[in-house]
Input
Amino acid sequence: MRFLFGDYSLDLGRRELQHGGALVEIEPQVFDLLVYLVENRDRVVSKDDLIASVWRGRIVSDSTLTSRINAVRKAVGDSGTQQALIRTIPRKGIRFIGDAEETVASATVPLTRPAAPSSPLRQQIHFCTTPDGVRIAYAEVGQGPPLLKAANWLNHLEYDWESPIWSHLLHEIAATSRLIRYDQRGNGLSDWDVADISFDAFVRDQETVVEATGLNRFALLGISQGCAHPLRTRFVTQSA
Output
């Protein structure tokens, strides 16, 4: 199935958004939100509708919801001021108001891009709360010896798992290990609107995930900023 509106093509089967024939980079969750708005363009959808359908009932902060709506608008060349395609209805919700034509997707040659690996592995996303009240999103996937990946800036649990950049590495690790990842405060699926952005806060985020997952002895993987995330001495780790 495909929706056409303006110069945009929204292909549900391939999970692709194109503008003038060029692929638009869009995060998986933002894509799902856009699809939901287009499919329900005949009505105003509320915040509760979005949470129930796109987030499957998980608790979502207002800042997270606003950021995803803004990302959808940006993907289709709209804005909160212009609102040519996505209109905010005060105290009601939002509605896709563009003229969308529903067609059957043709068997055209796909755009060339690195493909994410095909894998039966499915990560499970959960949330935990730090001592200062920040909700941290973490994901678990795979079986085997536990391996915790320390967060680094601009992680996104869902996007990284499907990204052609990171997905191959993550799937390889999860094939033989219990892989645990999390989005630190300020990015990804964790709370964005937080008061404390500091090294100590990042360490507390990691400690909270360790406690929530019941880890005792585990390998710790640090990439980029994550290399500077030591755990408190009460946790036993193996260097990775």
